[in-house]
Amino acid sequence: MDRITHGIYPPGSLIPTEQEFAAEFGSARATVNRALTSLAERGVVERRRRVGTRVVLGLEPRTQQVSLPVFRDLVEERGGRFSFRFLGPVERPVPAEVQERLFQSDPQDIVEHCTLICSDDTVICAERRWTDTSALPALTEEVMTSTTANEWLACHAAISLCEQVISARRAGEVEADRMLRCPADTPVLVYDSTLWIKTQPVSRTLHCFAPGFEMDRPIG
Question: 43: pLDDT confidence band, cut at 50, 70 and 90?
């Protein structure tokens, strides 16, 4: 995306093949395929079998700021009292899939924090968020003790894209069972979001909702 934005791959041009990208970046072809598929779904490139992947003609850099929904509004619109408990940083290696999502970040700059989102003092969501601290230096632990990262980003960050995948997972698979106080094999709704600022992904989040909770809007 950075190369497209800076005109290295201008509109209408064919970009390298999956095999060429895999060789350049030392990645598996499946990883390259997922990245190109994501760009195609966002309307940045067009993929044609036996032709290749071409940058869309007339493509303009994304400059609009995305408006992120926030948990406070979600809770209060339902008549609940919003609160949260910031659990602080987690000292464990950054998962490979997170490093893949935050591909422009130095793994040493990526920090995981956990937060519990509550309605009327009942936990409705366990949040696991990985943030590139060099890209978002103002989002400090001190800030996250007084407001959620979700709300801070909605108010203070120029988010240009929110990529999101919604799935049902076992609570133990996403390490949310202890936070949600449910058995590891309990199925939970998971919103997997990656936030971008211009051409850089800066935050990846797993919002794991408590069993029985119904969601009717995306959350970043």
Answer: confident
